[in-house]
Amino acid sequence: MKPFVLVLFALLALLQYRLWFGENSLTEYFTLKDRISHQQSGNAELLERNEVLKEEIQDLKSGTEALEERARNELGLIEQGETFFRVVGNDSRSIRSSEQSQDNQ
């Protein structure tokens, strides 16, 4: 009876080793599960991006307003008869340097 128990114990140890450290082990399972969840979240982000791009393409194909807006923003185009004004704000560094020069006087 004792050799039978030893064989069963050895078999159990072998199966436990395969479960924890062998091919398709629990550590590999959890690693793959984590990689799958990361991949799925990346896929979801890409799907959202694709939807935004599809909407933008549809908007550009269907109307001239989006095309005109894009030309104005990205290319700086203006319509005939329009006057372009560039508003230049005060730079905070130049204000500080002028305040410092006034303090030094």
Structure report:
It is found in: Cell inner membrane. InterPro entries: Cell_div_FtsB, FtsL/DivIC. The chain crosses the membrane at residues 4-21. Residues 22-105 are periplasmic. It is a single-pass type II membrane protein. It is a single chain. This protein has 105 residues and is an all-alpha fold. The protein has a domain at 27-63. Helices cover 77% and strands 0% of the residues. It is built from 4 helices and no strands. It has helices spanning 2-20, 26-62, 64-75, 92-104. Helix 2 (26-62) crosses helix 3. It is rod-shaped, with a radius of gyration of 34 Å.
List the helices and strands and how they pair.
Elements: H1 2-20, H2 26-62, H3 64-75, H4 92-104
Helix pairs in contact: 2-3
- In helices, the fraction of residues equals over 70%
Strand content: under 5%
Oligomer: single chain
Q: Evaluate the radius of gyration.
A: 34 Å
Uncertain runs are: none
Global structural class: mainly alpha
Please report the distance between the alpha carbons of the first and last residues: 105 Å
Calculate the mean pLDDT score and round it: 82
